[in-house]
Amino acid sequence: MAKILKIYPDNPQENLVNEVIKTLNNGGLIIYPSDTIYALGCNIFDIKAMEKLAQLKKMKLEKSKFSIICNDLSHLSDFTRPIDTSIFRFLKSHLPGPFTFILEANKNLPLAYKGHKTIGIRVPDHPIPQLIVEKLGHPIASTSIKDDDEIIEYSTDPELIAEKYDHLVDIVIDSGYGDNVASTIVDLTSGEPEIIRQGKGII
């Protein structure tokens, strides 16, 4: 059964955040809040956790396109090819924020991402994922939680999310109601912003 941890942005309890970190380091899956929707996450360096995440999304790991959640832009060089100063300034002006930016990947990607030519980078404007990444010491892999409902595409109620994923994840972070609009996906591989999916973020 998934453990529900009530962690609120204005005063996140350190012991609860540490429990999340321990779970990630042990290969567990978490559901966490962001500045857009609730999302699934795991340790990018744990191949078994990544495989579990892919199974949960009913896809093969090599076909998956899980975003990488960072707490700032300092991790960019770990995963992406060198970027122009103009692109870096563009990223800096929009992050943290409700965007997923597609960039050219380098050859140092974690094992689960090997062979990927591009990578999606997120820096959510939300203290909880930022704190998790900071305490973990490296980014996490992430994918959105989609709802089966035809009207509401994304679940916003953490209690309902916890019920649905009770036996599928290890921790659900309850941070209050989430949003129901996903991030805006922007492709920057050509050097010019190209919107792939319009979401919450406005360019």
TrEMBL record:
<dbReference type="GO" id="GO:0003725">
    <property type="term" value="F:double-stranded RNA binding"/>
</dbReference>
<keyword id="KW-0614">Plasmid</keyword>
<dbReference type="InterPro" id="IPR006070">
    <property type="entry name" value="Sua5-like_dom"/>
</dbReference>
<dbReference type="InterPro" id="IPR017945">
    <property type="entry name" value="DHBP_synth_RibB-like_a/b_dom"/>
</dbReference>
<dbReference type="InterPro" id="IPR052532">
    <property type="entry name" value="SUA5_domain"/>
</dbReference>
<protein>
    <submittedName>
        <fullName>Threonylcarbamoyl-AMP synthase</fullName>
    </submittedName>
</protein>
<dbReference type="Pfam" id="PF01300">
    <property type="entry name" value="Sua5_yciO_yrdC"/>
</dbReference>
<feature type="domain" description="YrdC-like">
    <location>
        <begin position="14"/>
        <end position="201"/>
    </location>
</feature>
